Amino acid sequence: MKKWIALSVIAVTGLTVWQLWPTPDAALADAPQTNVSRQAAAPKSAQWPLPATSEHTMPAKPARPISATESLIATREGDPRSPPIVHTPVDHIAPTAAELADPAAYQRYEASQNQRLYQAYVQAANDAIPQIRSDIVKARNMGIPEARIAVGEEKLRRIEAMRAELLKDHPQLHP
């Protein structure tokens, strides 16, 4: 009998504490308002994440904390500041039935596919190298830190090295 009385007292105490415990909205209402980013407090109807301002300041905090689900829903269409994704169509040539039946013919098919891949890389490198060089010059003129410019120079060096290796190993790729 004493067990049931003790359990009842614990249950009633737990429910009372649960009912009186402050909610996150109430805790935010009691907290002092700070304005770190020199922006006015966001209205309750504001969407999160807020776009960055032209002053490159952090967006204002939302009126209430958002859940992970709300955050995911807000970014369903992506970040409006990110560049669009451009899908390059791939011209895939499937092997013929004869190539699939004959191992030697299939090896020739694979070699031609590799040749197409190498040719596409050399062509893309030929197009990208002048652009990367001009980007490096622009970055130096803009005063970008040398550490960030070094990343672009390393990228350029690796692209040129791979292009040179492909042209050395496959002389038929020369234009």
Radius of gyration over all CA atoms, rounded: 31 Å
- Helix and strand sequence: HHHHHH
Distance between the termini: 95 Å
Shape: elongated
Number of helices: 6
This entry's quaternary arrangement is single chain
Sheet-strand content, in percent, reads under 5%
Average per-residue pLDDT, rounded, comes to 78
Describe the main β-sheet briefly. none
**Poorly predicted residue ranges:** 34-46
Instruction: Find the count of extended strands (DSSP E, 2+ residues).
Output: 0
The share of residues in helices is 55-70%
Helix-and-strand structural type: mainly alpha
Could you explain how this protein is built, in words?
This protein is an all-alpha fold. 58% of the residues lie in helices and 0% in strands. It has 6 helices and no strands. It has helices at residues 2-20, 24-30, 68-74, 97-101, 103-142, 146-169. The longest helix is centred in the last third of the chain and has 40 residues, at 103-142. The protein is elongated.
